[in-house]
Structure formats: C-alpha cells, structure tokens
Design a protein that fits this description.
- The protein is of the alpha+beta class.
- About 15% of the residues lie in helices and about 30% in strands.
- It is built from 4 helices and 8 strands, in the order ααβββββααβββ.
- The protein is globular.
- It binds a DNA duplex (12 and 12 nucleotides) through strand 3, strand 4 and helix 4.
DNA sequence: CCCGTGATTTAT
DNA sequence: TAAATCACGGGG
C-alpha cells in the first residue's frame, strides 16, 4: 500500500518524522529495489537559511520544490553526487525532506553492483548520495510524483509506527554555513539503527 | 586529514 | 564572463 497525497501535504517536520519506518521503492532495470527509511532532514523553505529555497530563491535547479507534497526533488552536487528530497506541504510552498539513509531490504545484490565502494550492507545506503547511487536515482527522477509513479514511490509501513521515543532529533549535517539554522534539531533518525549515516 | 569533480549560483 | 560554492563520499 503506497502513501497517498494527504501524507505529504503537511509541514516538513511532520513529514520528516512520519517518513521514518516507511519503505522507499525503486523499480529499475526490471528489478525491485527497496529499503526502510531510517534517517531524514526537514527543510523549512523561505525562512530556513540552510534550504535551497531560502528567501524564496527559485531557480531551474530547485523548480520541483514548488510542485507540492509527494513530488521528488533530486539535485546534483559536488560534481558527482545526487540527493533526493520528498517535497512536503502544498503546491507553491517550497518545503521538503531530504532522505539521508535507508535500511536496504530488497535487491541488495543489485545495489552492491552500483555501490562498488560499499564493503558491508551498512555502507550501501547510509548517506543521501549513497542511497541515490544504490537505487539508480538521478536527475531524471527530479519532479517525479511519488503518488503516481510506477518506478519511484513510498510504501506504507506495515505494523505499528516508529514510537516517538525511538526517534532521535539532532542538528542537520553539512549546513554549518546556515548560522542560527545550523543547530536546530531538524535531522531525525531511528535510535540505534545501524544504517543511519555517521553512526 | 584532504581531495575529486562540475553544475549551479553569485558577484562583477 | 569569472569566481566561489556545495544538504557528499572515499581514501589515508
């Protein structure tokens, strides 16, 4: 059962927390690759100095941030890496959640082929660019509607939600430039999970 | 610790 | 047009 539009059309902190425990699914090259989302970061839009849309900045790169909840925002950085965000909120409200890590559950052999540097299972998807490499996510997936796509979507967790007591909040990674926004606890991860980045 | 790598953004 | 930046990852 896939997550519907209503799941995504909330503020990015609520979506970032609720995404923990859900399953990211990618169909590529006739393979089904999947993993449980274990680490996210919320980006709060025009007010957030760490966000690509700070001050309402709207460019060709970040255009999909305005498509509304449930779309993908995939960007290229450092000359070699892709990162995937899940857009939250309503259309014309540029807020999103960065997917920082998943615990791989399906298609590990195929992920390993794409992730040549990974030695252990915990190295496969334990970072925002690692999970994109493992799942074959790139700029072609930018703007994808996760509610409708056949090749990239998120399935609802079966069983109980992650308990609030098992969700750790900490400062976001790699945003030291963002002044007072750098220290805000907008990174969320599942406590004691081995597939979280920098554990 | 340092470096690759190049699109994107920002300043001139 | 040019320069600086970068929501990262891998290797020492």
């Amino acid at each position: 059962m896939r997550l519907g539009r209503r799941f995504y059309t909330r503020d990015s902190i609520a979506v970032a927390r609720a995404l923990l425990g859900q399953t990211l699914v990618r169909l590529v090259d006739d393979q089904r690759l999947a993993g449980v989302i274990v680490e996210t970061e919320a980006y709060l839009g025009a007010i957030d100095k760490a966000a690509h849309t700070f001050n309402g900045r709207r460019t060709a790169r970040n255009a999909s941030m305005w498509l509304g909840g449930g779309h993908a925002y995939v960007y290229f950085t450092y000359g070699m890496h892709y990162c995937m965000n899940v857009v939250a909120g309503k259309a014309e409200e540029p807020v999103a959640v960065l997917l920082r890590a998943i615990e791989p559950t399906e298609g590990l052999d195929f992920m390993r082929q794409r992730r040549k540097a990974a030695k252990r299972n915990a190295d496969l998807c334990s970072g925002p660019a690692k999970l994109c490499q493992a799942l074959g996510i790139d700029r072609q997936n930018d703007g994808t509607d996760l509610v409708a796509s056949e090749s990239l979507f998120i399935e609802k967790r079966r069983g109980p939600a992650i308990a609030p007591a098992d969700i750790v909040a900490s400062p976001r990674v790699g945003v030291a430039y963002a002044e007072e926004w750098a220290a805000k606890p907008l990174r969320f991860y599942i406590a004691n999970n081995l597939h979280v980045s920098k554990h």
